[in-house]
Amino acid sequence: MTPEGDAVRPYGYRAEILEILWRHGVHPAPTTPPELVHAFVGDLHRYELRRLRDRLLSKDFPKPEYYARVVEIRSRYRILALKPCELVR
Questions:
Q1: 30-51: b or e for each residue (b if 16 or more CB lie within 10 Å)?
Q2: CA dihedral of residues 53, 77, 28, 87 (deg, nearest 10)
Q3: What is the pTM for the complete model shown?
Q4: CA-to-CA distance for 35 and 25, rounded, in angstroms?
Q5: End-to-end Cα distance, the chain
Q6: pLDDT at 8
Q7: 12 DSSP assignment
């Protein structure tokens, strides 16, 4: 029970989803809402894209390589194509 008296609902994350989340360093507890997990992974995705843009602007790699690198990052975050409710059983 939470301090407000509400029961904490356990969420049954799908095994394949947990495996993907673990690769991103995300370890949700059974009581972690899928909406929170989805938002956190979205924040990680935006962070990586911003970091890549910063590297481009500091000329760490040539501009023609940028698109392929963006595509590679996006392919690692395909979980974001799912709705939060699809992360659980």
A1: eebebeebbebbeebbeebeee
A2: 150
A3: 0.84
A4: 17
A5: 22
A6: 76
A7: -
Determine the longest span between alpha carbons in the chain, in angstroms.
56
The CA distance from 81 to 10, in Å, is 23
**How would you write the pLDDT of the chain (89 residues) with one tens digit per residue?**
455 655 678 999 999 999 999 999 999 999 999 999 999 999 999 999 999 999 999 999 999 999 999 999 999 999 999 999 999 99
Residue type, 49: L
Q: Rounded distance, CA 2 to CA 42, Å?
A: 27
Instruction: Give the number of C-alpha atoms closer than 13 A to the C-alpha of residue 29, restricted to the C-beta side.
Output: 4
